[in-house]
């Protein structure tokens, strides 16, 4: 989706759910580690430009609805029952919290950890001096363990 289309979708959803009249704003930001955020004190909902670039209309809509549910619940409700009820009420198909498992953005990863045992690939989105040093010295085989099976992982640089 184009930036203009995402902004229009956000505006329409904000209006539909009463955020526009209460001064809420929408912004596209540069974060890679999350798809969207709700900032209650600033009355602002943000979506990641990386998420937008690699997502469908429906995925973007679901994350927007997820963040709108946070805004409507107010601060301090997290992803509990009240939040999940609000998601259902406004048409968020999934509560959105677990969507990150399905909507990974591998192109944005700085490093990839590949398990030698189960083959799972995990992405890391922050640069690390320790990992850079291990890559430089070709000693990446035993630096990290798999979060699933606890076996050792190899490390590769992601695309920049």
Brief characterization of the structure:
By secondary structure, this protein is α+β, with helices and mostly antiparallel strands.
SSE order in H/E notation? HEEEHHHEEHEE
Low-confidence stretches: none
- Gyration radius from CA atoms, angstroms: 18 Å
Number of domains: 2
Largest β sheet strand count, sense and barrel closure: 4 strands, antiparallel
The CATH superfamily name of the largest domain is Metalloproteases ("zincins"), catalytic domain
In CATH's first tier, which class of the largest domain applies?
Answer: Alpha Beta
Kindly report how far apart the N and C termini lie.
21 Å
Written overview of the protein:
By secondary structure, the protein is α+β, with helices and mostly antiparallel strands. The protein folds into two domains: 3-101, Zincin-like (2-Layer Sandwich); 109-157, no CATH class. The protein contains five helices and seven strands. The strands form two sheets. The protein has a four-stranded antiparallel sheet with strand order 5-4-7-6, with no helix packed on it. A three-stranded mixed sheet has the order 1-3-2. A hairpin with a 6-residue loop joins strand 6 and strand 7 (152-157). It is elongated, with a radius of gyration of 18 Å.
């Amino acid at each position: 989706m184009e930036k203009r289309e995402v902004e229009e979708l956000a505006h329409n959803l904000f209006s539909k759910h009463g955020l526009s009249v209460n001064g809420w704003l929408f912004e596209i930001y540069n974060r890679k580690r999350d798809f969207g955020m709700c900032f209650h004190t600033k009355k602002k909902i943000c979506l990641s430009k990386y998420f937008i670039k690699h997502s469908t209309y429906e995925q973007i809509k679901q994350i927007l609805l997820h963040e709108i549910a946070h805004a409507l619940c107010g601060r301090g409700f997290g992803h509990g029952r009240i939040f999940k009820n609000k998601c259902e009420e406004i048409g968020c198909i999934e509560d959105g919290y677990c969507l990150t498992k399905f909507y990974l953005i591998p192109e944005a990863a700085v490093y990839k950890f590949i398990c030698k045992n189960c083959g799972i690939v995990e992405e890391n989105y922050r640069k690390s001096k320790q990992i850079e040093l291990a890559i430089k010295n070709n000693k990446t085989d035993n630096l990290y363990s798999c979060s699933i099976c606890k076996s050792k992982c190899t490390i590769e640089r992601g695309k920049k």
